[in-house]
Write a structure and sequence with these properties.
- This protein has 245 residues and is α/β, with parallel strands linked by helices.
- It has two domains: 5-141 and 204-244, Vaccinia Virus protein VP39 (Rossmann fold); 142-202, N-terminal domain of TfIIb (Single Sheet).
- The chain contains nine helices and twelve strands.
- It starts with a helix and ends with a strand.
Length: 245
């Protein structure tokens, strides 16, 4: 169970796929998964990525703490081909190994504290099959992406397939000491209804991520900085480790 209404409230979840369609990141990650049979999708959300992997022939298990998100996942095309589990990635315990463990859509950043991330990496280490790999994406704090999440920069009125024209915007506060960003998501409908949520995500540095991965007995085989597979640099917008046991 998650207490973030952006993922837990069935009404707000109706905006999720509208705001988060298939993008170049999913295409890139799908290529990384190619050749892997058993795939564990942690923080799978509404199942867009997991269902597509299943359509391509992978055996997919999707895990998410938000039941409202999984309700959408089960109903989507090819969703019946995936085993969906409502569970927290920090404490997941399954009786099978996986050839690939993935965490996409910056879901990794919802783990706010080092202890949370340590628990995640322990779960990954326990569930990786010999020769298996893992990857995830996290925004590079050096790129300061949150500076573009102000109300002025994000306010737009766009057509929604169910609600019609929707005004949407964000607001944001960055805590430099913790590296945690608190951002609001707001949707105003033509009839005056307003849907809102407050979310928190962490911007861990690459050196922090590297230490936490190593502490779990995992290693990173390749550090990438974008969704084309370019090597990570200090100026990269993304931190994408691809690793193994």
């Amino acid at each position: 169970m998650t207490d973030d209404l952006l993922y837990a409230d069935p009404e707000l979840v109706r905006f999720y796929d509208w705001e988060n369609p298939w993008t170049e990141s999913f295409s890139f990650f799908a290529d990384l998964v190619e050749g892997s049979d058993r795939v564990l999708d942690l923080g799978c959300g509404t199942g867009l990525f997991g269902a597509e992997l299943a359509r391509r022939g992978h055996r997919v298990t999707g895990c998410d703490p938000a039941g409202a998100m999984l309700d959408v996942a089960r109903r989507r095309p090819d969703g019946e081909k995936v085993r969906w589990i409502e569970a927290d990635a920090r404490s997941l315990a399954l009786d099978e190994p996986f050839d690939m463990i993935v965490m996409t859509g910056h879901a990794y950043q919802t783990l706010l504290a080092p202890a949370d991330r340590a628990s995640l990496f322990a779960v990954i280490a326990r569930h990786l099959a010999p020769g298996g790999h893992f990857f995830f994406d996290s925004r590079n704090p050096e790129a300061r992406a949150w500076e573009l999440w102000t109300a002025d920069a994000t306010r737009a009125t766009l057509p929604h397939p169910v609600f019609g024209m929707v005004e949407r915007w964000n607001d944001v506060v960055f805590d430099a000491e913790s590296g945690v960003v608190t951002y609001g998501t707001h949707y105003r409908l033509d009839d005056g209804r307003l849907f809102e949520a407050q979310s928190r995500i962490a911007f861990a540095r690459k050196d922090e991520i590297e230490r936490e991965i190593a502490a779990a007995g995992l290693r990173v085989d390749r550090w990438m900085g974008d969704y084309e597979g370019s090597p990570f640099t200090a100026k990269s917008r993304e931190i994408i480790p691809f690793g193994s046991l």
